[in-house]
Amino acid sequence: MCGPLPPDNHRSGKPVTAQTFNRMTPYLFLAPAAITMAIALLYPLGYMVYGSFRDWDPSQNISETDFVGLKNYITLFFDPAFRESLSVTLIFAFTVVVAEMVIGVGLALLLDRNIRGISVLRTLFILPMMIAPVVVGLMWRYMYHPTVGTFNKTLKSLGFDGVDWLGQHALLSVIIADIWQWTPFILILALAALQSLPASAIEAARIDGATAWQQIWHIKLPLMMPVLVVTALLRLIDAFKVLEVILVMTEGGPGLSTEIVALRISRTATEFRELGTAAAMSNYLLILLLILTLAMFAIGRLQDARTARLARQVQEEEG
Amino acid sequence: MLKYTKRITLGAVSALALASAASAGPYDEYQGETLIVNFPAHPHFDAVMKILPEFTAETGIEVEVDQLPYLKMRERQTLELAQDEGEYDLIAYVVFSKADYVYADQLENLARYFMNPKLADPAYDADDLIDGYVYNIGFAGGNKGYLEGKTGSLFGIPYGSETSILGYRTDIFDKHGLSVPETYGELLDVACRIPDLEPGMGGLSSRAASGHHASHAFLLHLAPLGGRIFDDQWNPIVNNAAGVEAANALKTIVDCGPEGAASFGFGEALGSFLNGDTAMFLDTTVVAGQINDPSKSKVVGKVGWALHPMGVRRGSQTGGFGIGIPSNAENKEAAFLLMQWLTSKKGDKLVALAGGNPSRFSTHADQDVNAKFPHMATFGEALKHADPDWRPIIPVWGKINADLGTTLSKVLTEDLDVQEALDGVAERTRAVMEEAGYYTWQ
Question: Any chain A CB within 8 A of the CB of B258?
Fold first, then answer.
């Protein structure tokens, strides 16, 4: 790719060309990766954006469809069902991520010690996230079954009334199932972060007489924060796109109470056969996730800046 | 993706078949061809798999079956039928796909095959096919665009016909001296007396979960109670008195049904009846096989069958599948021969004996079939009342159906007022129809 210069150029004595060629070399090396990325990532994305401006039935090729401008976006903006779906998604995503972060980090703090059988415990804890989502959905659906489900059978055997899990409390029920499945993800990342913390800082805190709680609150959590921010972000993105478990458990019902955006996109494309609207909906979701991602990174930057400022202050005071 | 590709290869049998097919006349030209067909994973088509070797033996035409769960099947067909050259020679399609496929010019008009003397079997007896199904699944371009009528023509043939039927527990009915309900008044009365007579047991198990389950259950009651989604000018009338009565009937059934019935899909509703948790089941005829299967059912030998109760008229559902030839198929004529063989009197009887749903009057009345499946005569009677217009088959139905189903789910679980709910559905339906151009001529 970067062999000897063409003889003509060499003879013509134009060093600028040679310099240009040299400057181009890194770009030439990058080209295959860039082209692959453009084809694999940008093309489908561009196709989706293009499709979102068209009135597109799945029986048509995209070239046969009519251009409708921003109609799909505007219709969605005023569509109460889509807005309900968006609010369900926001409630679902933020609830599960907060709950999973609290439980996952809590468990990690408990497990971050040398006790017998810890590796077995860790393996057991991460089992749920290894199960296929459809299986998780089915499993929980049967456990929530009003008459033969584990929960109601247990409640009834203890003398309580059964709970209408997937009827009256459908959103709570799918949130519980998601927390069960994905808390281990937070756990393993938080545990890895904890184990990579500098022992000297914790040692120093202990010598200074910090209690276990003070160590967690003032040393461990702040040091883990960069990892936790990224972990929360990854879970949040995933929670916005969750589909299979809810599809299997409730199919979005009752009413629209558990119809998250990913499920509505799927139904719009397959049941309503409106690919243009489904593409527009996907773009709304994409924009939302982009905003969240940027916000999370901005928070991370602010924290870094604050830490750097504090470090400078300490240095100045010491100096 | 769940995908079952089953190649029906015959080995020694095909060699024999090729020899015998030499005198088969109409099949000569197509011997040795391999047809690729797309069928759903469904009890009827499981039965079809059993009889396909006989077709190959008789004709020398081999058949390769791509069997998919039916929603996946529809997705796959949507992609496949839009290609210039398709993979499938014959497809099974659900009834609501008819509008999409015909509108997009993706299914062959069958006229030129039935006009071709080399292909059309004179003994086919199309009049024996069940009328409601031919119109519901096969016809397009007639009345309302999707029914029979002078402007309509045939694009597919029903195969795997289902209608709604009332299954009831004979032991429970005998024990309490209950009569089998013949009208909606009697049905709702019995459904709500059962929980008192048999504590812990629900009256009737119905699907009711949000979306198409709730919508399907509502439509089951709407037609017999005299309602429709639209009038003849496409004005939504789902919120009229009959619509409200149908929604109230569904609510009563769910309230008097087994615990948690409001979140039941079809599987749970059937499971509840199979498990002995309810005294009645009102849904598709396709369940008969499972109800009589001791490995799946606790109520074998305890279930009687009756016609879907009457409201102001008889009107049971029309459902199931049809088979048609894609416009982009490679082997269209051989595909037609397979289609004709499967839906012939012989093929229909064979599939019925193998546990499928017959599509002909004669098969329902056949002695051999009735000896093996005693319920078949009642099912045949029910099919005479199958209403091809029990739900509209128009391209925008998917969206209306979803809205209807989610709104009814709110009626069942959140106590939303029935009239208010249906008024909302009617208003939104009008907007959808307006946008789709149904009021252009008004």
Answer: yes
Q: Which residues of B touch A274 (CB under 8 A)?
A: 399
Nearest CA in chain A to B202: A147
A250 to chain B nearest CA, in Å? 8
Amino acid at A117: G
Contact yes or no for A168 and B259 at CB 8 A: no
- Beta carbons of A60 and B82 less than 8 Å apart: yes
Residue of B62, B90, B35 lying closest to B328 (CA atoms): B90
- Detail the DSSP E strand segments found in B24-140: 34-40, 62-68, 90-94, 139-140
Residue A310 three-state SS: helix
pLDDT band at A15; cut points 50, 70, 90: low
Per run of 10 residues, the mean pLDDT along chain B (length 442 residues) is: 44 44 73 95 93 95 93 87 91 89 93 95 94 90 90 94 92 96 96 94 93 94 96 96 97 93 89 94 87 89 94 91 95 96 96 92 92 88 89 90 93 92 96 94 85
CATH number of B164-317+396-435: 3.40.190.10
pLDDT at A154 over 90: yes
State whether CATH 3.40.190.10 applies to domain B4-162+319-384. Answer: yes
Closest CA in chain B for residue A82: B403
> By CB neighbour count within 10 A (0-12 exposed, 13-18 middle, 19+ buried), where does B408 fall?
buried
Instruction: Give the type of residue at B142.
Output: G
- Structural domains in chain A, CATH included, are 71-311 (1.10.3720.10)
What is the nearest CA distance from B271 to chain A, expressed in angstroms? 11
Q: Is the pLDDT of residue A296 over 70?
A: yes
Residues of chain B with CATH 3.40.190.10: 4-162+319-384, 164-317+396-435
Residue A271 with chain B: CB contacts under 8 Å: 212, 398-399, 401-402
B82–A61 CB contact, under 8 Å: yes
The DSSP symbol for A52 reads: T
